[in-house]
Specification:
By secondary structure, the chain is α/β, with parallel strands linked by helices. The protein has one domain: Spore Coat Polysaccharide Biosynthesis Protein SpsA, Chain A (Alpha-Beta Complex). The protein is about 30% helix and about 20% strand. The protein has 10 helices and 13 strands. Helix 7 packs across helix 8.
Length: about 290
C-alpha cells in the first residue's frame, strides 16, 4: 500500500497522528511518502522527523518505510502563479506535481491523505477498489458538492458511482460530482496517460480559483469513481462505519457564522469542542512521541 502526504514542517504533528492511526488498523506493508519543499517562507518537512517516522512504521512491519522527497525544483519550475497569494500555503499544490516526482510517478496507485485525516479501520477495500480506466477515486465534498458540478454522466454501481465528465449526451442523469481532495486514490498510469496532473498544474498557473488545488483536480479529472462517505467523513464527528475521518474545517451558522477548525493533534479542543474521546489511545501515544519530531 502506498500512502502520500504533502507539506512543510508544519504537518509533522498531524502526520504522526495519522500514521499512528493507520498502523493501528493496518498491519501489512505500507510505503509512506512525504513530499515537501523549501520555498521562501515555507520550511521543509525535516529529515529528522522523517527518519523518526520511518523507524516507527518499521516497528509494525519491517518492510514498511517513510520516504521524504524534496520537490522544490519541480515546484519552482511549475509555479501556480495565479494562486500563489491564496489562503492556503504553496504546499497545498504539491499533489498536482506528483507525475513529475519519479518515486511517485512509477507507482501503480497511491492514496493521498491530508495531514488531518485519522484512520478508523482497514483501508484495503478502499485501496484495492477497481480503477480500470479511472484516474481517481474519492468522496463528494460535503459543502462544494452543492455549489459545483462538472456536468458528468453518473452511473450508479452498488454504493459507488463512476463519473465520466466528458460524456454530455444525457443531461437527465446529471448528479453531484465535486470531490473533496483531502482523500484521493490516484491511478498513476491512467493519470499520466491522460496528462491529468499536467493540466491541473497548468490551470493553477493560468487561472485564479477558490480552493485552487481542489478546483483544478475536479476540473481536470475526466473519469472519477465516487466512493461511499465512510472513506472521507468530513463532518466534525465520525459515523459508526467511518474508515477515514477528515478533520476539515466546518461551517457553523448559529448563533453566528464562523469557521470551526479543530485538528486531531489539538487534544484539548478535540475533547472540549468536538467531544470526541475515541482517539485517546492514539493521542496518548502521540503525546509520548511528538518530542521526537
Amino acid at each position: 500500500m502506498n500512502i502520500l502526504y504533502c507539506g512543510d514542517k508544519g504537518i509533522a504533528r498531524g502526520a504522526l497522528v495519522s500514521i499512528l492511526s493507520i498502523l493501528k488498523h493496518n498491519h501489512g506493508e505500507i510505503h509512506f511518502y512525504i513530499i515537501t519543499i523549501n520555498y521562501k517562507d515555507t520550511v521543509a518537512f525535516t529529515e529528522k522527523s522523517a527518519q523518526f517516522l520511518d523507524g516507527l512504521v518499521k516497528n509494525t512491519n519491517p518492510k514498511s518505510f517513510v520516504k521524504l522527497i524534496d520537490a522544490t525544483k519541480v515546484f519552482v519550475e511549475n509555479l501556480p502563479k495565479k494562486n500563489m497569494g491564496s489562503y492556503f500555503t504553496p504546499c497545498s499544490m504539491l499533489r498536482l506535481y506528483i507525475d513529475k516526482v519519479p518515486e511517485i510517478a512509477k507507482l501503480d496507485r497511491v492514496l493521498y491523505l491530508d495531514y488531518d485525516v485519522v484512520c478508523r479501520g482497514d483501508l484495503s477495500e478502499f485501496y484495492n477498489t477497481d480503477l480500470d480506466g479511472i484516474e481517481a477515486a474519492g468522496v463528494l465534498d460535503i459543502y462544494g458538492r452543492r455549489w459545483y458540478k462538472y456536468h458528468g454522466l453518473l452511473k450508479r454501481k452498488n454504493d459507488t458511482a463512476v463519473v465520466d465528465v466528458r460524456d454530455k449526451k444525457d443531461f437527465s442523469f446529471l448528479k453531484q460530482d465535486y470531490m473533496n481532495s483531502g482523500v484521493l486514490l490516484f491511478n498513476m498510469p491512467e493519470c499520466i496517460k491522460t496528462k491529468m496532473f499536467e493540466r491541473a498544474a497548468a490551470l493553477c498557473a493560468e487561472k485564479r480559483m477558490m480552493l485552487a488545488d481542489q478546483a483544478a483536480l475536479n476540473k481536470c479529472i475526466n473519469k472519477r469513481k465516487l466512493m461511499p462517505r465512510k472513506y472521507n467523513e468530513q463532518d466534525e464527528r465520525p459515523r459508526n462505519d467511518t474508515v477515514l475521518h477528515h478533520f476539515s474545517n466546518n461551517f457553523k451558522f448559529f448563533p453566528y457564522f464562523k469557521v470551526q477548525k479543530v485538528k486531531p493533534f489539538d487534544i484539548e479542543r478535540v475533547h472540549s469542542v468536538l467531544k470526541i474521546t475515541e482517539y485517546d489511545d492514539i493521542l496518548e501515544e502521540y503525546s509520548k512521541l511528538k518530542e521526537n519530531l
